[in-house]
Automatic annotation (TrEMBL):
GO terms for molecular function: metal ion binding; oxidoreductase activity. It comes from Azospirillum humicireducens. Keywords: Metal-binding, NAD, Oxidoreductase, Plasmid, Zinc. Pfam families: ADH_N, ADH_zinc_N. Signal peptide: none annotated. Gene3D superfamilies: Medium-chain alcohol dehydrogenases, catalytic domain, NAD(P)-binding Rossmann-like Domain. This is L-idonate 5-dehydrogenase. Residues 178-296 form the Alcohol dehydrogenase-like C-terminal domain.
Length: 353
C-alpha cells in the first residue's frame, strides 16, 4: 500500500509500505480521506517545529476517515464496509494521567504522525491502516470528508469545554484557520450570544462569517479595530486564541473584561505575555491540548446535523498529487481545509481552483 512519508523539510514522498493484518481487538481499514493539519505542514515545510524535529522518515497524517475492510478477533459493533472516523489518539490507559481521566495528557501517548517521541509514531496517511477498534467511531450518514473532520472538530470542542460556561457569553476568536472557524461553530452550539472573529485574510474571514461569526475584523486592514472593545476594562468574556501570534494574544487580552477566560489553542512557540494586564484584570489563562471523549461527541454532532463542517473542506486532492496538496494547504488565501482522497472513487478538486 502507498503512504505519504516526510523524510526532511520539503522532502515528501509517496512510498510503498507493507500491509498488516488486524489482531485481537483491531480492525483493518481502507483509508478514505485525510485532512492536512498545521503540524503536517510544519513537518513538510520545516522538518518539524520548535524542538520537535524529524529524526527518521515518518508517515504523516492524523485526520482520517476510513471504511472497515477486515475485523479482527473480539471486535463487535463494527461492520465491513462501514464508514468510520478514526481517532489518532491512542493513550496507554494505564499511566497516572489516564487513570485520572486526563487521557490527552497520557505519558505514553501514541498519536498518529508525531515526531515528539523517538522512534516516531507513524501516521495515518496511507491506503491501508490497522487500528484499535476503540479508535473507530461509526460515521454512518456522513461523507468521507466530513468524517475526516472529526479530529479538528474535537480540538475545538475540547477548547470549548476548557472555556467553561458559554451560555450568553461574548466571545472573541483570533486566528481563523480550521481550528478558529471550528471554534466559532462550537462556541455558537454552546450558547455564545456574540462572536467576533479576527484574522489577516478576507478568505478565511468570509468562512468565519459563514460559520456564524457576528462580526469579522481584518486586523491587517483595521489594526486598531479591537481598541473599541477595550473601553471600560474590556468587553469579551472568552478569548479563543487560535493563531499562536503574540500580537493577537496581546490585543485579545486588552479586549477581555475582568475575570475573562483566555483559551490558548494556537501553537506558535513560546510568547511574551502581558502579565500585568492578566494580573490586574484577574484573567484566567487556560491551555487546551488535543482531546479525548470529544472525538465521538463531534462525530455525533455532525451526524445529527448540529454542526456543519462541509463549507470548511475547500479542496479534495487525489493521492498522486499529495505534494501539490500540501503546497495548496499552506496558502491561507485560497484554502481552508485541504483533504487527500485515498479512495480513488472520491471526487477531487482541480489544483487550479
Amino acid at each position: 500500500m502507498k503512504a505519504i512519508v516526510a523524510h526532511s523539510a520539503k522532502d515528501l514522498r509517496i512510498e510503498e509500505h507493507p500491509d498488516a493484518e488486524p489482531g485481537e481487538g483491531e480492525v483493518g481499514l481502507a483509508v478514505a480521506a485525510g485532512g492536512i493539519c498545521g503540524s503536517d505542514l510544519h513537518y513538510y515545510q520545516h522538518g518539524g517545529f520548535g524542538a520537535v524535529r524529524l529524526k527518521q522518515p515518518m508517515i504523516l497524517g492524523h485526520e482520517v476517515s476510513a471504511r472497515v475492510a477486515k475485523i479482527g478477533p473480539g471486535v463487535t459493533g463494527l461492520e465491513v464496509g462501514q464508514l468510520v472516523s478514526v481517532s489518532p489518539s491512542r493513550p496507554c490507559r494505564t499511566c497516572r494521567y489516564c487513570q485520572q481521566g486526563l487521557h490527552n495528557q497520557c505519558l505514553n501517548m501514541r498519536f498518529y504522525g508525531s515526531a515528539m517521541p523517538f522512534p516516531h509514531i507513524q501516521g495515518a496517511f496511507r491506503e491501508a491502516l490497522v487500528a484499535d477498534a476503540v479508535q473507530c467511531v461509526p460515521a454512518d450518514g456522513l461523507s468521507a470528508g466530513e468524517a475526516a473532520m472529526a479530529e479538528p472538530l474535537a480540538v475545538a470542542l475540547h477548547a470549548t469545554r476548557r472555556a467553561g460556561d458559554l451560555l450568553g457569553k461574548r466571545v472573541l476568536v483570533t486566528g481563523c484557520g480550521p481550528i478558529g472557524v471550528l471554534s466559532i461553530l462550537a462556541a455558537r452550539r454552546a450558547g455564545a450570544s456574540e462572536i467576533v472573529a479576527v484574522d489577516l485574510m478576507d478568505f478565511t474571514l468570509d468562512l468565519a462569517k459563514a460559520a456564524g461569526a457576528d462580526r469579522t475584523i481584518n486586523s491587517r486592514e483595521e489594526p486598531e479595530a479591537l481598541a473599541a472593545y477595550s473601553a471600560d476594562k474590556g468587553t469579551f468574556d472568552v478569548l479563543y486564541e487560535c493563531s499562536g501570534a503574540v500580537a493577537a494574544l496581546t490585543a485579545g487580552i486588552g479586549a477581555l473584561r475582568p475575570r475573562g477566560v483566555i483559551v490558548q489553542l494556537g501553537l506558535g512557540g513560546d510568547m511574551s505575555l502581558p502579565m500585568m494586564a492578566i494580573t490586574a484584570k484577574e484573567l484566567d489563562l487556560r491551555g487546551s491540548f488535543r482531546f479525548h471523549e470529544e472525538f465521538a461527541i463531534g462525530v455525533g454532532l455532525m451526524r445529527k446535523g448540529l454542526i456543519d463542517v462541509k463549507p470548511l473542506i475547500t479542496h479534495t486532492i487525489a493521492l498522486p498529487d499529495a505534494r501539490a496538496a500540501f503546497d495548496l494547504a499552506a496558502d491561507r488565501g485560497r484554502a481552508m481545509k485541504v483533504q487527500i482522497a485515498f479512495d480513488p472513487t472520491l471526487p477531487s478538486s482541480s489544483l487550479q481552483h
